[in-house]
Fold these 4 entries.
Entry 1:
Amino acid sequence: MEAYCMKCKTKREIVDPIASFNAAGAPITRGTCGVCGTTLYRIGKTDAHAGMVKPEKVDRRSGKLVIVESPAKAKTVGRFLGKGYTVRASVGHVRDLLRSQLSVDVENDFTPKYRVPNEKKAVVKELKRLAKEAAEIYLATDPDREGEAISWHLLEAAAIEQKLAKRVVFHEITENAISEAFANPRDINMDLVNAQQARRVLDRLVGYSISPILWEKVRSRLSAGRVQSVALRLIVDREREIDAFNPVEYWSIGAELRPHGQKQTFITKLAKIDDKDPELDKEEAVKPILVDMEKTDYSVSRVKRGERRRKPSAPFITSTLQQDASRKLGFTAKRTMGLAQGLYEGQDVGEAARPA
């Protein structure tokens, strides 16, 4: 049996060959060179391996991999978790429907066809490499329907073993919230994943047929989906109602009164004339009433007193946050949501600003 000798630069006969297996479980034969004494090494099964028990493959995985969505969040979460954790960002979705075709098999239960976009291939390749080396993998994407779907897509795209993957969810990026989430991992919620897939498929089915109409009638590269299409229909219906509206003239009469001996005034509104609703549909009907009201005396027949309770405003939701930011600060919706996302992910305030 021969093997290549690195020192002699040629094949030599193996002296005292010993059959064994390497760390990967492949059969090998070790020995020495009969000329220079260098250790020789040959891969391949021989008769000497017959009857030998192949050793179990040693799992050399170590460390814990955490995958979040954004790089800013990765830095903040990594700071809280400390050593032993490798935190990486998927930078949003890692798979999507093909752009060049419908990518939905309508005849086969609306099965979607996914691919990794070119701009995400480097990210997926890096995550796949890290996943092969990690003993535990935590999917810490956002705690919503999209985040759940991203975790599921990561399992598929990065070839992550199901038994190693754990889903963690936290609603605030604080040390306590993150510690609690990692102490109580769960499985991926497939109901949320399927809900996201249904939304994405519906978007594609509607948008793929409507978008070309926009390109032809308005301008190219516009997109339409399930939300824009319905919203446009509501606007059109409302415009048609406005166009069909027949304006009717009407008047209202009010009086500014001041009690005797007081400076403060209050505004009243005419509600009844002789216990009947007044018909103030034209100016001619209003003028006689104004003459009578200017000559008459007024008295307060009843005073109603009560209490009013003022409650604090409800916590912000997306729409009220955008409205207040626009009204009070002049922010656009895009700027508001960018700042909100940055605050959620954690802003680096520097060492001097952190508590001791």
Entry 2:
Amino acid sequence: MAQKPQIIIIGAGFGGLLAAQTLAKADVEVTIIDRNNFHTFTPLLYQVATCALDASSVAYPVRSIFRDNHNVHFMLGDVTEIDHEGRSVTIKAGETSYQKWYDYLIFAVGSVTNYFGSKSAEEVAFGLKSAADAIRLRHHILRCFERAAWASDEQERDALTTLVAVGGGPVGLETAGALHELYNYVLKQEYDDRSPRLRARVILLEATDKLLAAYPASLQKSAAKQLESLGVEVLFNSMVEKVEPDSITLKDGRVIRTHTLVWSAGVKASPLVEKLDVTLNPKSARVPVEPTMQVIGRPHIYAIGDVAHLLDKKGQPYPMLIPAAMQQGELAGKNILRELANQPLMNFHYNDKGTMATIGRRRAVAWLYYKIELSGFLAWIVWLVFHLILLLGFRNRVVTFASWVWNYFTYDRSVRIIMDSEVTPRDNPATHRVPDPAPQDVVVAKA
């Protein structure tokens, strides 16, 4: 009996899952390899970091997703080598290394935080690319307020309660707004018994003169206005020069004393792309692919999501966004099945439904189908509905919706427990922050 075609998918992000779901009922064997045994709903990580949601609400076990698909298997581990000539992948799981052969490989390892060459930012700043990152940041913020409540030095107290987000994109806006609401709606009520009272300050740094660069000017202005109405300080034309554990120095010489810097200024393709042994795009370091999503020069390997470099009709690379990764993952799965059936392969056509960003309670902007502009409460409702639909698992949807309702009506966030068992070196008051470990979403990062 002939062996079924073997397909390996590296990464259980949005693109990898859609590829696996496309192949789930076909006459093939699929193996998903991931560093974690769960899929992370990355758009809501900032809510985990700001005590609005528990990490389990944005994570879903990979094995549970494919429980009824007996041709889809999961392997927990790190990919250490890819042999494209021998068509094999080496995986390290604990102290043991395994080698698995494939007929087709789908490369869906996503992106990592881009610090744009700033070594000090990479060593000190907090990223938000994984559930572990979000929990670490949450613990750090809560510990800063606990320390500030008993600090006798006013400057140190203010530094502990000054929270800075870098980057005027959707993640930066969402993080800054959530940080400000965390203090004003929750922590303020619990730390006002101290004398003098704590004063939280949230700052959003943007290197250019506008937020949400890809949005229309009207939505850019609306986003800035909504942030400022919330109480966030928006500093334009402010580039970070140097980052230290207790301060940030801007290129114009200004110094902001803070112990908390959240870096959301951009992402770049996962370093694992180098394992493919192909010439990467010089600007983005992404893997050049054919319109079929096959890696150029490696027809048996498909690259999707944040690692894939493919130009649209305007000559611009497709965005590193979840909808693009999902659609490319589905196409990769379909094209593998078409190739096995000796049918012509299909090219990628992006069905872009627009973009949106939430800023806080009743505050958001949305550009639907790049035609309809929404801001304020209506945009916020659209954002909530869209993210609930995308969230995996009925339980996660119910728990997340219930948490949102509770937070909205009670002005409370219950996920504020600091677990000693989860303390990392960065939580150590003596050091405050240390370099991030490798991202924990997928083999290197998520799509």
Entry 3:
Amino acid sequence: MSQPFSTAALVPAGNFRRLKQLGLLLAGTAILTVSSQLSVPLWPVPVTMQTLAVLMIGALYGWRLGSLTVVAWLLEAALGLPVLAGGKSGLAAFAGPTAGFLFAFPLGAALAGWLVERGWDGTRPLRAFCGLFFCSTLMLLLGGAWLATLVGPAKAWLLGVQPFVLGDVLKSALGASTLTLWSALRVRRAAKRPRTD
């Protein structure tokens, strides 16, 4: 019996996997760019959907590809592409008030992916929420630590950390819900797959 046609058969397995990863990386940087433009303009750090996008890319892509995608997005910004909040770009963004948050993003994505790979995923919604909130809090504290070197610890807490805690709780809950839905879809798809034994 002949096998069904597949475009994957035209490309060697290793190359097909690399092409797929490149596609995911480019899609991820686009998602990060769009999420950066969805913001509430607060000073000195705007509230955006970046954090949620970073966490979900890490959680869904895995820690290696997730963190690499975030690094690629930051490289785009450093090269002058307007991919950051408010269309900002250039090396100046990596020395200003938001620099600590930017540098914390790859770590947050890697940690989210690492935790999901170890069971902090959509099959356990509460653990997924706790894992995402931990990653989000870590990024927030690292960003606040950098901001403290510029404006002092008290001001950094009031302006760069405290106002965003509730948002991080909500983003973590939304992320955990997304992972739960994704997990349910995967289980349903696996159940519909024909058995070969």
Entry 4:
Amino acid sequence: MNADFLDALRQIEKEKDIPLEALMETITSALVTAYKKNYATTNEVRVRVAATKVGFKVFCEKDVVETVESPHMEMTVAEALKHNPDAKIGSVVEIEVTPENFGRIAAQTAKQVVVQRIREAEREKVYEEFNQRVGEVLTGTVQHKEQRNVFINLGKIEALLPPAEQAPNEPYRFNDRVKVYMLEARRTSRGPQVVVSRTHPSLIRRLFEFEVPEIAEGIVSIKSVAREPGARTKIAVSSTDEKVDPVGACVGHRGSRVQAVVNEVYDEKIDIVRWNADAAKFISESLSPAKASSVTVDEETKTALVIVPDSQLSLAIGKSGQNVRLAARLTGWRIDIRSEAQVARAALTAEPTPEGEALLVDGAADLPQVLVEHDAELVEPVALAEEAEVTESADAAAEQPAKDAGEAPAAEEKPKRTRKKKEEPAEAAAEEPAKEAVEAPAAEEKPKRTRKKKAEED
């Protein structure tokens, strides 16, 4: 090993961003392996590599003993005095071992080990770098597709975008620039593997941090995010400064900020709502763009009953329940939406309680005074109805003898004659135009006969 080899290591240090000390340890390990293979020893061999201006020097350490049992690790006192005049039994003597003594096979083995260790060090470096960036948004380009997997080129590595993390409305064309959310970094036999996502809710959070300076400065904070990838997203924002409107800061001038995020996620709809510590107000805001009439919350069961106008019911529920589903995820509450008409109908059709039924069965004596007075008012209409039924019965009894005497058929025929009389004027009216139509030609023929008579007289 000479100075050129040292320059090559320094070049690798710059290109691969691997410290020279790590490369030196790698070379030391490679030389130990090559030394053992060259001298066919399985015993432990201690090798020390020293860097100098002209290159490297390799030293083999041996113990000074009286009787040598392992020539690769031990030497006699006479041999040790040749290398170190102060050597004695029990001391350690270093003997220089030049690379030329290793031979071609040993050099090739050392090369393979060095290359392998450098590759492993490079992979470990990449893994540590991306493992520290979990949760960040990275920019890459679509490299290629394998079956349903998409690979994104992030510069030092190709990240994997699995099918579960792909938005359904995104095409992922070759060489498209996309922003991805870093999920995790894995160690595999082929090196580190980076998994990214395009459907994670935190992707929207990071994109707003890039576009809205108030969020990056901490003035505006995103409290929660609920997302259905490719369709719609709701975010709840709040401000620590009363002078700063959180919704306006996220929307930007003429919607420039939110539009930049929408373009990045391929025109996915984004609703920005105002966060509120009051659960009822927050739930009402989360159902935007629908307006709630009233919100009733139950802290124990974490449920909320929301009443909306009839015209706002479909808007509050959304397409396939999407709006209320996102609102429930955003707030963390179970939301039940009813229209005003449904509430009124439920109140009218409510069945009486068993106690009320028992009181009505027992009679008015057991009812409260208010109910008794109310029932007293209903007595008079009932009596009138009974009198009407009695009068109708008397009339029927009076008509019965007439029916027996044979007057009933005459009474039945009377309406028939009336109908015929009513039909006769209609038939006469229908025949009148016909008569006029027949008489019209006769009126036209009369002048013709007059002209003939005049001609005969002439």
